[in-house]
Amino acid sequence: MSDHAPEHPxxxxxxxxxxxxxxxxxxxxxxxxxxxxxxxxxxxxETAPESLLDTSKLRGQVAIVTGASSGIGRAIALALARRGxxxxxxxxxxxxxxxxxxxxxxxxxxxxxxxxxxxxxDVRESVDVSDFVAEVHGELGGVHVLVNNAGIGRDRALWxxxxxxxxxxxxxxxxxxxxxxxxxxxxMRAQEYGKIVxxxxxxGVRAEFGLANYASSKAGLIGLTRSAAVELGPRNINVNAxxxxxxxxxxxxxxxxxxxxxxxxxxxALGRLGDPHxxxxxxxxxxxxxARHITGVVLPVDGGYVL
Length: 307
Ligand code: NAI
Prior knowledge:
Blueprint: H1 26-45, E1 62-66, H2 71-82, E2 86-91, H3 96-111, E3 116-120, H4 126-140, E4 145-148, H5 163-191, E5 194-199, H6 212-232, E6 237-244, H7 250-255, H8 258-267, H9 276-287, E7 298-301
Parallel strand pairs: 1-2, 1-4, 2-3, 4-5, 5-6, 6-7
Helix pairs in contact: 2-3, 2-9, 4-5, 5-6
The chain binds 1,4-dihydronicotinamide adenine dinucleotide.
């Protein structure tokens, strides 16, 4: 086209404002705006699904784990620390080996870049338990989670069971959990927030030969879990229990005859023994915000042993 070619009237169509006659009617514009707003509303409300485990709130909070110098307690303490929780833990000082094990766990916890406070504290001693909880509160700056894990067994046919075998087990597994729950309750009630998890056992619901003391203590712990859930729930404190089946810890592999472990493996639907991390995962779920509407339950972690 030459420089002087006459302009066609429609050549500037893209640049000019539309005439009134070319504009859509006002109600049509309003309708389009409404449709766009509705589409945007749908986009906002339909977000991507969240991951099941919401542990973000735990970061910077403080957990107490009883009996965390070995086995299941150690795995729980590490799982909480790896989610950013400061961890206070106690253990039974029954020899140099126990003290070394506790120091090793404390070192592992610090590797997760959280603070830790630990010392020997016998869960059967109610005054020492109260002191320990106050110390954790002072040293780590709060108490938000309690895991009552410390526990022992002294297996024997009940007609041969000595008084001290009965007492040691019931006082450790049941009284100890009560003393700790009572000691943390004022802190948790005041802040209107708390998570308590009790480590009971499949033997709290299923009888086995030689476990009268252990089964009674663990069944009692289920009663304590439900009572505490009712009494502490109004202050936003969740109280739950996990009921592990046979879990491969040294207590189990050193103390339980291999034929019993083989039978346990056969009886479980998944055909295997559990690992301490299996229990830690369940505890992590129960203290997370994903489980905020769950309280008073007993969650089996037994590979389908009690089916
Ligand atoms: P573990 O013997 O490895 O650990 C027990 C922990 O409790 C240790 O840290 C010990 O120092 C502490 N403890 C014992 N008596 C205490 C006391 N009087 N005061 C303070 N701390 C004390 O045992 P494991 O296997 O890790 O068991 C942990 C919990 O899990 C126990 O409550 C046990 O009954 C329960 N459980 C274990 C199962 C398993 O197959 N290993 C199965 C079901 C439940």
